[in-house]
Structures are given as structure tokens and as C-alpha cells.
Specification:
The complex is a heterodimer. By secondary structure, chain A is mainly alpha-helical. Chain A has helices at 2-26, 29-45, 56-78, 85-90, 100-110, 114-124, 130-137, 141-164, 171-178. The chains are: A mainly alpha, B mainly alpha. Chain A binds chain B through residues 1, 4-5, 8, 11-12, 15-17, 19-20, 23-24, 33, 36-37, 40-41, 44, 98, 101-102, 105-106, 109, 120-121, 123-126, 140, 142, 145-146, 148-149, 152, 155-156, 159, and chain B through 19-20, 22-23, 27, 34, 37-38, 42, 44-45, 47-52, 54-58, 60-61, 63-65, 67-69, 71-72, 75-76.
């Protein structure tokens, strides 16, 4: 019973960072909370497969990520659509407070393909090592490195364009329509 | 026998070396920024952390602790039921 209590405490302590990762992936707060909830239930069911002393956070991120992609595949099948309009519709920008600088960054981040976005979040924000991130994403360390590097150049590119387009109609829309690289 | 194992080991090392070499291609002369491309001196790195810290510091809805309490209760009830 005390083992289950400490497991419970570990999960609860991880909720804020799990939510942050989920929002980064899902781009939508409600969907993110559903993902976190699903992750906690799955983690609880699988607690026997967790080895105490190993990285609980990485283990939970792996579960959350798998859940995200399996939901996404399900959705894609459900709303099978021509071209990339699904992605555009799924990308919801709720009104958020905070500096416009941060909002620009958030929107830029949302323009990245999922694999690049998750890589740069895991490495640059969640504090994982390249090795841990590779394990979470089930790919090679080198793949993570190149995704992070591409994500970073892409963000730099988008953000400087955003800055220049301050007086234009909508820099993000312009970015999407002008750039064939966004997919 | 020993030699064979040694060869196997070397092959593995070579392969790893090759992979890293391949990965480093195209970024020649930028090794340092690649080592820590999102470090404290990087604007993108700073913004990323600001974005993420903002999310982390959001208030966590009660539903998560309630859910965990529920899961724990179910488990405890389950194990008592088995003992009975």
C-alpha cells in the first residue's frame, strides 16, 4: 500500500510537466487534459512494469506520447480529408494572455511538424537528455539531434519573418500560405 | 574465438562512429552551437523555457488528484476483496 501511495504521489507530482508536454503536442488545452488523464490511467494499470528508481517522468512521457499518436491516427482515419486542411483545422489558437512575444513564439511552435516540435520541447524545455528523448520517441539519438536542429532553424526563420510582418495582415497565415516547407 | 569476438566489437564501434560522422555532416565548424543549441545564450532556448514554464505554472485542475485517489481506492478495494 505504501508502494502504491508513493507511485500515486509520483504521478501527481508529474502532472504539471505532463500537461505542459501534452499542450505542446496537442495545441489545445482540453485535449491536453484528456491526454494527461488517459496517461495517468494507463500508467496506473501498468505500474507493475515500471521499475522503481528509473526515470518516472520519462516513462510517463513515453505513455503520453504513444497515446497522443494513437489518438491522432484514429482522428485522421475519422476525418480523412483531402490535402492538409485537417492540420489547419485542428490547430486551434485559444485566446491566451501573456506577452505578444510569447504568443508569437507559441504560434511559431505550432507551425512545426509534430516530430520536430516534440523533439525541441523534450530537449529544450522538459530537460531530457538526447538519449532520454530518443528513448521516449523510440528513435535514434541522431534523429532527435537532427529534428531539434531543424526545429530550431525553422523557429528562427518563422520568428524573424513574424517580426518583419508586424504591420501586415497576419504574419502566421502569410507564413503558412507562402511556405511549402510547412507540412 | 577471441579474435572473432574482438572483430564483432570493433564492427559495432565502427558502425557507431560512422553514424555519428554522418550526423555531424553538414554542420561542419558549428560543433559548439550544436552541442548546446538551446542553451542560455540562445534566444530560441530562452523562449522555449519561458513558454514551457508558463504552462507548468498553470494551476492543475482537481480532476487529476481525484482520479488518482479513485484509482488507488479501487485498487485497495480490489485487494481487500481478494483477501476476503
Amino acid at each position: 500500500m505504501s508502494a502504491s501511495s508513493s507511485f500515486r504521489d509520483g504521478l501527481l507530482a508529474a502532472v504539471p510537466t505532463l500537461r505542459a508536454f501534452a499542450v505542446s503536442l496537442a495545441k489545445n488545452a482540453d485535449r491536453a487534459d484528456d491526454l494527461v488523464q488517459e496517461t495517468l490511467v494507463k500508467a496506473w494499470d501498468k505500474q507493475d512494469s515500471f521499475q522503481p528508481g528509473t526515470n518516472l517522468k520519462a516513462w510517463l512521457f513515453t505513455i503520453l506520447r504513444n497515446e497522443f499518436y494513437s489518438q491522432m491516427r484514429k482522428r485522421r482515419r475519422e476525418v480523412e480529408d483531402s490535402d492538409g486542411s485537417i492540420t489547419a483545422r485542428l490547430s486551434i489558437h485559444p485566446a491566451q494572455d501573456g506577452s505578444s512575444d510569447l504568443n508569437d513564439f507559441r504560434r511559431a511552435l505550432e507551425l512545426l511538424p509534430e516530430d520536430q516540435r516534440e523533439a525541441i520541447i523534450l530537449i529544450g524545455a522538459s530537460g531530457f537528455s538526447y538519449e532520454e528523448a530518443a528513448e521516449i520517441c523510440g528513435c535514434a539519438v541522431g534523429t532527435i539531434k537532427s529534428r531539434v536542429s531543424r526545429a530550431r532553424s525553422r523557429l528562427q526563420e518563422i520568428l524573424s519573418i513574424t517580426g518583419e510582418g508586424d504591420f501586415g495582415p497576419d504574419p502566421i497565415t502569410a507564413q503558412v500560405t507562402n511556405s511549402p516547407a510547412v507540412v | 574465438m577471441t579474435r572473432m569476438f574482438k572483430d564483432v566489437g570493433q564492427d559495432a564501434d565502427d558502425e557507431r562512429g560512422m553514424t555519428y560522422q554522418k550526423l555531424d555532416k553538414g554542420r561542419s565548424g558549428k560543433r559548439n552551437s550544436v552541442t548546446d543549441p538551446l542553451g542560455p545564450n540562445s534566444e530560441i532556448g530562452r523562449k522555449l523555457r519561458q513558454y514551457y514554464d508558463d504552462l507548468i505554472s498553470e494551476e492543475v485542475p482537481d480532476r487529476f488528484s481525484q482520479l488518482l485517489n479513485q484509482l488507488q481506492q479501487q485498487e485497495q478495494q480490489g485487494s481487500t476483496a481478494k483477501e476476503d
